[in-house]
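We treat protein structure as text, and this decision shapes the records that our systems exchange. The remainder of this section carries one protein's record, kept here as part of the documentation:
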Amino acid sequence: MAEHEEKHEESLMEKIQEKIHGHDSSSSSSDSDDDKPSESSIKAKVFRLCGRERPVHHFFGGGKPADILLWRNKKISAGALGVATVIWVLFELLEYHLLTLVCHLLILTLALLFLWSNATTFINKSPPRIPEVQIPKEPVIEFTEALRSEINCAVILLRDIASGRDLKKFLSVIAGLWVLSIVGSWCNFLTLFYIVFVLLHTVPVLYEKYEDKVDSFAEKAMHKIKKQYAVFDAKVLSKIPRGPLKEKKKD
């Protein structure tokens, strides 16, 4: 009997220990599960410019355009920037006209090829091989489709702003257009296009290099802007009378 009672007590002690260990393991797993969302919440709280969640390369669409803007291939990026600079110098500083420049280039090219083709008969050399150049159909269709979709998105955005639903968006667009009109009065379209082109080839690569510092500064700036907008909203926008909103018809 004594041996039976001792075995019964040992089995009870083993069950109690198993329950204690099981509770500890479950509590530790729950603690680890609690830690995981805290880490993700910390990551989610990191401010990124333009509200992006992907790297800068993916933000610009990836592929070759992003490689050019972020100087992944320095030769192509430098070549594109150099060509844009040459075009700006020709049309802006030297005051060339587009039609005049195209005609002069065609005259020079055709004259050189014509003289070269006729000179080969006297020097017993093969004439120059002029390649056949044809514009492919698919890239043109893809470009026009992309341009069409962007124009449609812009029209939808302007229609949404003009409908008077979002006062904040309306004021931001009006301010942006006003600033753009001032910049347009300072320089012509070609100079403005060249400035934008240079900024696209310099600002993204600098931002990618100093991403954390820029995001930290932008977060502080956005916080101050939101404070100023809240004051402006309380003192001005909230006092503007608005008509009653029509309820949407339920299906």
In short: Residues 2 and 8 are 10 Å apart (CA to CA). The chain is about 75% helix and 0% strand. The two ends are 79 Å apart (CA to CA). The longest helix spans residues 2-44.
